[in-house]
TrEMBL record:
Record PROSITE patterns: CADHERIN_1 (PS00232), CADHERIN_2 (PS50268)
Residue ranges annotated for the Cadherin domain, each copy included: 80-160, 161-269, 270-384, 385-489, 489-607
Function: Cadherins are calcium-dependent cell adhesion proteins. They preferentially interact with themselves in a homophilic manner in connecting cells; cadherins may thus contribute to the sorting of heterogeneous cell types.
Compartments it resides in: Cell membrane
TM regions (residue ranges): 606-637
GO cellular component: adherens junction; catenin complex
Entry keyword set: Calcium, Cell adhesion, Cell membrane, Cleavage on pair of basic residues, Glycoprotein, Membrane, Metal-binding, Phosphoprotein, Repeat, Signal, Transmembrane, Transmembrane helix
Name of the protein: Cadherin-12
Signal peptide: 1-25
InterPro entries the record matches: Cadherin, Cadherin-like_dom, Cadherin-like_sf, Cadherin_CS, Cadherin_Y-type_LIR, Catenin-bd_sf
Amino acid sequence: MLTRNCLSLLLWVLFDGGLLTPLQPQPQQTLATEPRENVIHLPGQRSHFQRVKRGWVWNQFFVLEEYMGSEPQYVGKLHSDLDKGEGTVKYTLSGDGAGTVFTIDETTGDIHAIRSLDREEKPFYTLRAQAVDIETRKPLEPESEFIIKVQDINDNEPKFLDGPYVATVPEMSPVGAYVLQVKATDADDPTYGNSARVVYSILQGQPYFSIDPKTGVIRTALPNMDREVKEQYQVLIQAKDMGGQLGGLAGTTIVNITLTDVNDNPPRFPKSIFHLKVPESSPIGSAIGRIRAVDPDFGQNAEIEYNIVPGDGGNLFDIVTDEETQEGVIKLKKPLDFETKKAYTFKVEASNLHLDHRFHSAGPFKDTATVKISVLDVDEPPVFSKPLYTMEVYEDTPVGTIIGAVTAQDLDVGSSAVRYFIDWKSDGDSYFTIDGNEGTIATNELLDRESTAQYNFSIIASKVSNPLLTSKVNILINVLDVNEFPPEISVPYETTVCENAKPGQIIQIVSAADRDLSPAGQQFSFRLSPEAAIKPNFTVRDFRNNTAGIETRRNGYSRRQQELYFLPVIIEDSSYPVQSSTNTMTIRVCRCDSDGTILSCNVEAIFLPVGLSTGALIAILLCIVILLAIVVLYVALRRQKKKDTLMTSKEDIRDNVIHYDDEGGGEEDTQAFDIGALRNPKVIEENKIRRDIKPDSLCLPRQRPPVEDNTDIRDFIHQRLQENDVDPTAPPYDSLATYAYEGTGSVAESLSSIDSLTTEADQDYDYLTDWGPRFKVLADMFGEEESYNPDKVA
C-alpha cells in the first residue's frame, strides 16, 4: 500500500504540476482526471446546447518494474463521460499483454498489472481501450490507444563483457605509461536517473597501476618496475553505477598484466675462475668443458657471446655458444701434450648480442672470467720421428740389402721399448722386411723398376709394455733405374727423299726414347755406323738436344737405279754404363715437283709414261683385276663341268634300256645300243669314265636259262668293279653300279642282247607268238628271217 500511495502521489504531482505535455484538446469530448489517481477519460457525445468543460487527454501510464508486492500493482483508471455510475458501461482492454500482464475492471475501468515486469526485457506496452454499452453490446465511444511504460529501477550491475583482460607493458616504463582500457556495460536505462552511470576504480593492484574513473584507461603508477623482481601483476577493477554513490550496484573484472623484458642487465659470471681438467689424448675439435655467464634478462636480451681474450694458451682453444643453454663450450683447436706443457691459462669474455641504448649509462654489458686448464697424462702410443719416410733403392739390388730405417719413441713418463712390423695389408707381396727391434728396412726380393717404380706400405710401431697402443707411418720407396736398356728411335719414321734433292738438305728429324728412367740432364747422341760412313748417300747431323736430322749427301737420286736406301744410325745415352743401339732407317726415293712436293712414290710409276695421272693408273689397275677375275671364273666353271655326274655322253658303254611303245625294229634297231662295244676290249679300255646312274632293268615274261659262255662280260664286270674300288675321283656318296645279268626270275626272260647267242642263227624267236596279238608283227618278222636262213636250207 505504501508503494501504491507513493506512486499515486507522484502521478498527482506530475499531472497537477503540468510536467506532462497534453496530446490534443477535444472540443466535444473531454477526458477528466481524478485528483489522486491515473485516469483516462473516454470522450462521449454531448448536447449541442450543453456547455462542455475542457480537459486534457493523456495517452500513457507508468508501471514500476520488478514489483514484488502481494497485491496486483495498480496502474491507472479508464473513465468515460458517458458513464453515469449506473453500471451501464462496460470497459474492455486489448493489445500487448492484455489479459496476461494487465487486467481491467469492466465496471470501474481500473487497470492492474498482475505480474512483475522487467524493463530490460520489454520497456513499454501498447494497449487499446473502449467503453461498450452493457445491454446493446455496442461501443459507446471509438477505441482509444494508450501506452504503459515500465518505470526503470536500478536492478542491473555493470558488467565487463570482454573480461578477464590480459595486458603487457615493458619493464622500466615511466609513470603514466598506457597499459589497457577496460569497459563495463549497464543494462539499466541510461536516460533515467543514474542507474547506468558507471565509475571505475581499482580494488587490487595499487600502488603499481591506476585507472581513469570515467574512461577505464589503466596506466602505470610506479616508475622502473623491474621484470627480474616481479613479472606478473593481477589487478582487480570495479565498475559501479549510480555514479559511484552509496547504494549503487557494482561489477568487477581481473586484468593480468605482464612486464615484458628489456635488456637492462649485463651478463655476469658466477665466479671469476673456472678450473678444467683435460686428457692429453683429447681429439682436436672435441668439447673439453663448459662455462656459463648468468643474464637475468629473457629471450634475445639474454643471448650471450663468448670470446677468448688473446693471451697465454688461447691459440690452442676455441669457445662457442650453446644456443639452447647459453653456455660457453670450450673446444680443442690443437693437440695437447702432457710432456710438453701441463697447464694453460686464458680469459673468457661474455657479452650481450642485443644492446639497448637506453641503458648504456648503467655500465658495460660484458663480464670476464679466467679459465685454467690442467692437462692430464695419458698412456700414449709411440711417436714416429717423421710423418712420412721416403727411401730410394736401385733396381736389382741383392736381397737383404738395408735401404733405410724408421724410429719411434715412447714419450710418456717411464718410456717403454718399441717393436716394429710391416702392415701386411699394405705389403701383401712381402717385397721388404723390417727388423722388429732396430726398425731397419731391407729388400726381400729383387726389384725391377720397369715393373714397379714405387712402393708404398705402412709400418706399425707398438709399445712393449702395452702392445695395444700402436701407431702407423707410411713408407715411400722409389726404385732407382739402372741403365740396362739402350735408347731407340721413339717412333717408326717413313722417310722419303726427292729425286731432285740437293746436298745438305734435311729430310727427316728423329728423336730417341729409353725404357730406363732417365735422370735429369741425360743426353742422347746420334751418329752413322762406321760401315755406312764410307761414301755415304746420307749422313746424320746431331742437334745436341736429343734429336737429329737425316741429311742428304748427293745431288739428286734416281728411283730407276735404287728405290730404297737403308741408313744405320747409332744412338747412345749418357748414363753409366753407356748403352747404345743401331737403328736402321728406310729412306724411299720419290718423284717430286720443283717445290719439293711429293708426286709419286709407287714402284709402278717408274715404268709409266711421264705425265700419266694417278687416276689413270688406278683405272688401268682396276681393269687388269677385272680381267683376272673373269679368267679365274671361267677356269672354275670348266672344272665343274668335267665333274658332272649325269650321263650325257653318247660314248657311254653301259646298258641303255630304251623304252618305246611302237612295234617294229626288233634287233635290227641298233641305233640305241651298240653291242659291239661290249665285245671290243679296246673300247672297254678307252672308256673308263665313271657314271653313277643305275640303268633301268626290264623284266621279260619268259625265263630262259642263262648263257654260260660269257667270260668276256664277266671279265668286264670284274674289271669295272676293281676300277671303282681304287678310283680316287669317285663321289663321296654311296652309289650302286650294276654290271650283271638283267634278271632270271622273269617269265619273259631278258630282252637284252647280252644274254643272246653269239650268232644270229642260234636265236629262237618262236616265243614271240606266245605273247599275244601285240607282238604278232614282231613274231612274223623274225619268223620269216628264220625260214629264209640259207644255213638251215642247206
